[in-house]
Amino acid sequence: MNKTPTITASRRSRSSMARLAGLVTLAVGVIASQRFANSAEPATKIPAPAQDEKVVAAHSETAVFAGGCFWGMQGVFEHVPGVKQVASGYTGGAASTAHYDTVEEGDTGHAESVQVTYDPTQITYGRLLQIFFSVAHDPTELNYQGPDRGTQYRSAVFPVNQDQRSVAQAYIAQLGKAHVFSAPVVTRVENFNGFYPAEAYHQNFLALHSNDPYIVINDLPKVDNLKKTFPDLYLNAPLLLKTTAS
């Protein structure tokens, strides 16, 4: 049976907090919410991509993004209409090192990532990228997001085909030319060599632990920004990943 490990360092303290007794966690979460509700970085309004994926008849495609803690990334995309499933996991390294404790050492090549399965007739890859760059993370932070440090928290896109690669590269260039961010976009377009799902206790973490202080401070504002910035691309009830506990 999987158990959430005890983890140290800035972001790792969130997991131990998540195991606090219910009333204590709730109390801390409420205090954190009141104190930090306005401290999270606001979403950056950005133009839609000028280039998008080709129209196809298929109703199921996948996209893989990395932008800091996968808890928040998964939580955001689970609220997007047209998305069929979102899984947290690891991308960029070997299958043998795709394990939480190993990835957190920071030298596996993996990034905490999400695999988004979506219907391109309802939402395009370009629109997913717009959400990714605007509200899901800060694309100007090099090898970190908020309190989380290391290459495993880098901003990266892993195109699964050449069409996605072209769209991602063109959009990064478009955003850079438009100077919509106060600093350069550092998002990398990397080769996709496989996605490895994270342990079951990481899946749907935001939805299942919404009172966790880390979630309250760092991730719930992202979901709120999605609702405010893209009201037409927001579902009130998240589409949670179905998991089988082991």
Distance between the termini: 5 Å
Shape: globular
N to C succession of SSEs: HHEHEHEHEEEHEEHH
Architecture (CATH level 2) name of the domain at 44-208? 2-Layer Sandwich
Q: What's the CATH first level of the domain at 44-208?
A: Alpha Beta
CATH-level-4 superfamily name of the domain at 44-208? Peptide methionine sulphoxide reductase MsrA
Tell me how many strands there are: 8
Helix content: 25-40%
Q: What is the name of the CATH topology of the domain at 44-208?
A: Peptide Methionine Sulfoxide Reductase, Chain A
Q: Which ranges are low-confidence, i.e. pLDDT below 50, for 5 or more consecutive residues?
A: 1-10, 12-39
> Quick one: biggest sheet?
6 strands, mixed
Radius of gyration: 17 Å
Beta strand % = 5-15%
Q: Please tell me the overall pLDDT.
A: 87
Q: Number of helix segments? A: 8
Main sheet: which strands, in order across?
A: 7-6-1-3-2-8
Secondary-structure class: alpha+beta
Structure in words:
This protein has 246 residues and is of the alpha+beta class. It has a domain at 44-208: Peptide Methionine Sulfoxide Reductase, Chain A, CATH 3.30.1060.10. The chain has eight helices and eight strands. The strands form two sheets. The chain has a six-stranded mixed sheet. The protein has a two-stranded antiparallel ribbon with strand order 4-5. It is 33% helix and 15% strand. β6, α6 and β7 (188-189) form a beta-alpha-beta unit.
Layout of strands and helices, then pairs:
Layout: H1 13-17, H2 22-36, E1 61-67, H3 70-77, E2 83-91, H4 100-103, E3 111-118, H5 125-136, E4 144-145, E5 148-149, E6 155-157, H6 162-178, E7 188-189, E8 195-197, H7 205-208, H8 213-229
Parallel strand pairs: 6-7
Antiparallel strand pairs: 1-3, 1-6, 2-3, 2-8, 4-5
